[in-house]
Give the backbone structure.
Amino acid sequence: MSHLFAVEVELQPHQPREPESVAEVGVRKALLEDLALKTLYVAAPPSLVELASTMCLSYRVVDELFRRLRAEQLVEVTGMNGNAPQVALTSHGRSRALELLSINHYVGPTPVSLDSYIQQVQQQSVRDLEIHPSDISRAFAHLVLDETTLKKLGTALNSGSSIFLYGPSGTGKTAIATALAEVLWKDQVWIPFAVQTDGQIITVYDPHIHTKIDHPIAENSDPRWVLCRRPSVLVGGELTIEMLELQMNPITKFYTAPVQMKANNGVLIIDDFGRQRVRPEELLNRWIVPLDRRIDFLTMAGGRKVEIPFELFVVFATNLNPSALAEAAFLRRIQTKVKVGAPSRQQFHEIFRRVCNELAICRDAAIVDELIDSIQNKHRERLRACHPRDMVNQVLWAARYEGREPRLDRDSLLAAVDAYFVPDAEQQEIGSD
């Protein structure tokens, strides 16, 4: 984490520069002093070098803070380790640190200012990206899609705004949404550990969401920012309206950023849209301004509103009719709608071939044709992009149960179909109960 061991390389465009004084850090001096005291109490770094590393600040800035705290008799020098002073809290400093920890428990990298965050996010906007056919071909090489659909997807990404993917279940909408994120994933952005506004701290960097890039950074780069891939956040039926607001932990007493803030400069996928724990109209009303004006308003304790950028590409994926989910005013703001329908017979064969190659199982084209006829005629179902893998999995599971090598012959495949689909007569009987 420490910049002290960074490889000597030049600052890249939009790469934050390390502050060289307390004034340049961009947050209140009192917050820095408080954070230093809490860090000394909780982490007990033995020297100013370790304190600088923990706080993600330069030694020069931390030394300036230490001098002020020492003058107030809150810290003291306990010895020397080479040229680095060994430091500790005084009894007065420990008392003050405990008071500060009762206000909030945040200890770690120094937050950046809200203004710095806004500027950085706007500089890294997804609207500034240029997506070309080669980018789409690379990200979608594992999927079987027609050129018209691929062109629509590439056009939508160049808008840097949002897209509606709709169609029956099992047609590959989630896979397409994930591939859209893969197009942007190759690019890199800077994510702050935390943001500070009006004395409140909002943690942003999330190692479960943000993929850190281990890449040499400039020695004078600001270590409060993490170089990451453009983020990709997927939420489904678990989404609630509360997840779109700042999350205050009642124990630690600082905020966690909502999903759209963590997804800034990347992709947010709303999977199974319309089936969340929040009503579709409530979610759409919440986001009608952000999608239009590219800004969002978050509410802090006490009712204060904080304006943050809404610089992300939003993917709504649903198997429901979009016109039944959203009114015209909202659909107008999502200018690209792509229907993901049933694959053609030829596409079904290609998907089946890829699945069999991946799982190292032989296939016969004639058997696949019989499978298609069985799905369409006997079971009166439309073809789905998920069917090949689901059918092959059924064959593999049956072979494992019987203790034999899997064979994709007529009997095993038709047995898989019978195990997978509900017969039409039984559907009618269940529906009449």
About this structure: The two ends are 63 Å apart (CA to CA).
